[in-house]
Amino acid sequence: MTQLNVAGFEVHKGFLDISAQREVLSAVRGVVAAAPLFTPVTPRGKAMSVRMTAAGDFGWISDRRGYRYSPVHPDGQSWPPVPDCILGIWRDLTGAARAPECCLVNFYGEGARMGLHQDRDEADFSWPVVSVSLGDDGLFRMGGTERGGRTQSVWLQSGDVVVMGGAARRAHHGVDRIRFGSSTLLEKGGRLNLTLRVVT
Ligand SMILES: O=C(O)CCC(=O)C(=O)O
Ligand SMILES: [Fe+2]
């Protein structure tokens, strides 16, 4: 494993080997079976290109009413629990006293992206966010706390894990594009990203 450190972001290249990736993927399939992927709509009414779901006490949702954490899926059901193998990644990398209350699942199909943003709907920024990449490569852009500052990009591959803690916790980040079909982990292609968050 190599570890880069760009602007406070910890990028753990190759953190999950192929068998760990398969185990996490199968756990995510269980989550998606219980809580189907949906297309969030921005408060201005624009469909996001990423499809989402979640596990844990809360999921992050967006619709005409705004962005927020919700204890239920848009279909009205509770989110399934965060699978143990995913909680293990959080424990190994953070040693944090609290467990994440949300595992947000993002699915990037061909052409999907995520604009530069801060994760700031959580109550306490002293807890890190841990981000797990599976499947196709994604070009991850990292910036600073202020909007419009310098950014640096890194290609995240299947099994890479990023920890956004300390200064990086409030830093801007996004995914400019994916290389659709670059990984064989997902048979039909695409990129999965999991972000583990303490919400309350
Ligand atoms: O897909 C990624 O690597 C980042 C996802 C992200 O920033 C988010 O869900 O807030
Ligand atoms: Fe984010």
From TrEMBL:
Entries under PANTHER family matching the protein: ALKYLATED DNA REPAIR PROTEIN ALKB-RELATED, NUCLEIC ACID DIOXYGENASE ALKBH1
Highest taxon of source: Bacteria
Binding site for substrate: W60, Y67, R68, Y69, D121, R147
Annotated ranges, domain Fe2OG dioxygenase: 99-200
Gene Ontology CC: cytoplasm
InterPro entries cross-referenced by the UniProt entry: Alkb, AlkB-like, AlkB-like_sf, Oxoglu/Fe-dep_dioxygenase_dom
Cofactor note text: Binds 1 Fe(2+) ion per subunit.
Keyword Ribonucleoprotein in annotation: no
Binding-site list for Fe cation: H117, D119, H173
Cofactor(s), by name: Fe(2+)
GO biological process annotation, one example: oxidative RNA demethylation
Positions of 2-oxoglutarate binding: N106, F107, Y108, R191, L192, N193, L194, T195, L196, R197
One Pfam entry name: 2OG-FeII_Oxy_2
Annotated protein name in UniProt: Alpha-ketoglutarate-dependent dioxygenase AlkB
UniProt keywords, alphabetically: Dioxygenase, Iron, Metal-binding, Oxidoreductase
A GO term for molecular function: broad specificity oxidative DNA demethylase activity
